Amino acid sequence: MADRAAIVTGASSGIGLAVARMLGQEGHAVTMAARRPEKLQAAFEELQGEGLEVQHVAADLGDEAGIQAVVAAHRAAYGRLDVLVNNAGVGIGAPVGEIATKRMDIQINTNLRAIPIFYRETIDLLRAAGAEHRNALVVNTASVAGKRGEAWLSIYSATKFGVVGFTQAMNKELNADGIKSTALCPAFVDTPMTDFVKGQVPPEAMIQTSDIVAAVRMLLALTPGCVIPEIVFDLPGGELGIPSA
Ligand SMILES: NC(=O)c1ccc[n+]([C@@H]2O[C@H](COP(=O)([O-])OP(=O)(O)OC[C@H]3O[C@@H](n4cnc5c(N)ncnc54)[C@H](OP(=O)(O)O)[C@@H]3O)[C@@H](O)[C@H]2O)c1
Fold this sequence. Notes:
Elements: E1 4-9, H1 14-25, E2 28-34, H2 37-49, E3 54-58, H3 64-78, E4 83-86, H4 101-133, E5 136-141, H5 154-174, E6 179-186, H6 209-221, E7 230-233
Parallel strand pairs: 1-2, 1-4, 2-3, 4-5, 5-6, 6-7
Bound molecules: NADP nicotinamide-adenine-dinucleotide phosphate.
Residues 10, 12-16, 34-36, 39, 60-62, 87-91, 110, 141, 143, 186, 188-189, 191-194 line the site of NADP nicotinamide-adenine-dinucleotide phosphate (NAP).
């Protein structure tokens, strides 16, 4: 049994898969969670094939029961939680007059509502890890759109502002228990999520998942007295670069 354990959501591709791999390499047993079973199975087999200690649970994390299923499987397999990575997310663009309520709900539920539920469902495990080593870590993937509102991505922006705010509140509430939270706020990262814009912004000009991995690796190495509440990853020049027409 691994000495450390982690849950990574949105672990079937992009940032989540890269962070799950790194946590496995750093000696964590990792529960990988994401929505589509076949895609998650392929990602799981990739990491398992590399000799990492992983399991996978497919679930819609916009649904409370899905979150509870992930946490129950993690608890049963590993019995501890040192790192929680709330990374699953979805962005659906629309001008404000055309926002579809269902698409708004999908973004709110996946990007924001899931995060407090994950904290609530795992707080006993996080507190136990915090009591043991004062370095329980929760990483919440927000976005640079959670630092500056983006046109046509207004709901996505609102959810990500919510993630930043909730992360700040968790630090005030849980730092005394040895639980630290960090919101990651990247601009375009070269993942499947940005395929829609790769005609205008070449993938090699984007932030790489290795940059996000390097930041999370750094968070793992911090001493208990150091909290980093958020990290903004910008493109050179500092604008998100979404074309305005
Ligand atoms: N790429 C960027 O430019 C960028 C910038 C800033 C922030 N982010 C944030 O980074 C996070 C990861 O995104 P990514 O760029 O790595 O994109 P990605 O490769 O598309 O990964 C998104 C992950 O979230 C999962 N997911 C989506 N909806 C879900 C749901 N309802 N239940 C469970 N899992 C769900 C996906 O699984 P399925 O594929 O099965 O749905 C997938 O594993 C997101 O929170 C995103 O908002 C990305």
